[in-house]
Every structure is written in C-alpha cells, then in structure tokens.
Amino acid sequence: MTAFGISLIEPTDEPIFNIHRFKVFNRGKHHLLEPGAQKHNLNYQIDGTIDEKIVVRIFFRENQKVYRALYYVMKGMDKELALLLSQALVERLKVRFKFSKDFQLKEIENG
User: Fold this and answer.
1) At CB < 8 A and 24+ separation, what contacts does 30-36 make?
2) CA–CA gap between residue 107 and residue 111 (Å, rounded)
3) How far separated are the first and last CA of the chain, in Å rounded?
4) Selection from 83, 78, 72 nearest residue 45 by Cα
5) Is the entire prediction scored with pTM above 0.70?
6) Where are the alpha helices (DSSP H) in the chain?
7) pLDDT of res. 98
8) Neighbours of 95 (CB within 10 A)
9) Which of 12, 47, 59, 83 could form a disulfide linkage to 68, CB 3.0–4.6 angstroms apart?
10) What whole-number distance in Å separates Cα of residue 91 and Cα of residue 77?
11) CA Rg, the chain, in Å?
C-alpha cells in the first residue's frame, strides 16, 4: 500500500518518539521527487496496530516555514484518532520547525 508515494511497511529503524502507544517514524524526504522539490517536504509515519497507520507529509515554503501538512489514513484506522495523532505530531514538530500563521492540516481521502 502506498500513500503520497510512500510504502506503508513495517519500519526497521527505531521510532523518533512515541505518542501514547503509537510509534512515530521519520520517513525522510520523498526520493521520487526531483531534488529541488525534496527540500520542501518531510514525511512521517505513525504506527499502532497492523491496521493503524498514518502517513503525514509536511510542506515548507522557501522561507523554511511549515505551511501545510497532509495526512493519509490507512483503511481501518479510526479517522478521529488519526486526526488527534496528526495534531499531536504537529505540536511536537513545532519545537523543531517554524510554522506559518496560516498553517493547515488536512486529511487526504482514501480513494
């Protein structure tokens, strides 16, 4: 299964942190994008049980402020919980990155 071009697989690296029982992994840059576009986004994966997976991609402007985050919810994951976990991830990332005042977090519908 892919979301935003990222395979949802069992990560082999250690999580960067936990949000309650969920593990958060830094999936890095999307390597299928051109190098110029790669520097404008980062990807994270939030894992719970086998059916509880979320991919979150954050987008940067030229000034390196985060202006948008899109999250994709694996089928079977509770959507309200996915929103809360994505919001918690964003709050943790605010320690590391500057966010625009017009920041938006949006779910990408599972089609």
Assistant:
1) 30/4, 30/5, 30/6, 30/57, 32/5, 33/5
2) 12
3) 12
4) 72
5) yes
6) 35-38, 79-93
7) 96
8) 6
9) 59
10) 21
11) 13
Closest CA to 66 of 32, 48, 33, 89: 89
Give the span between the Cα atoms of 99 and 111, in whole angstroms.
29
Domain regions of the chain by residue span = 2-108
Instruction: Convert the pLDDT of each residue in 6-39 to its tens digit.
Output: 456 667 789 999 999 999 999 876 555 555 555 6
Residues in the chain: 111
Q: What are the C-alpha distances in Å from 99 to residues 81, 96, 111?
A: 23, 10, 29
Main-chain phi, psi angles of 70, to 5 degrees? -110, 140
Distance CA 4, CA 57 (A): 8
CB 52 within 8 A of CB 77: yes
Which residue do the tokens 């519908």 mark? 109
Please give the structure tokens belonging to residue 20: 């309650």
Tell me the two tokens of residue 17. Answer: 């942190």
How does DSSP classify residue 109? P
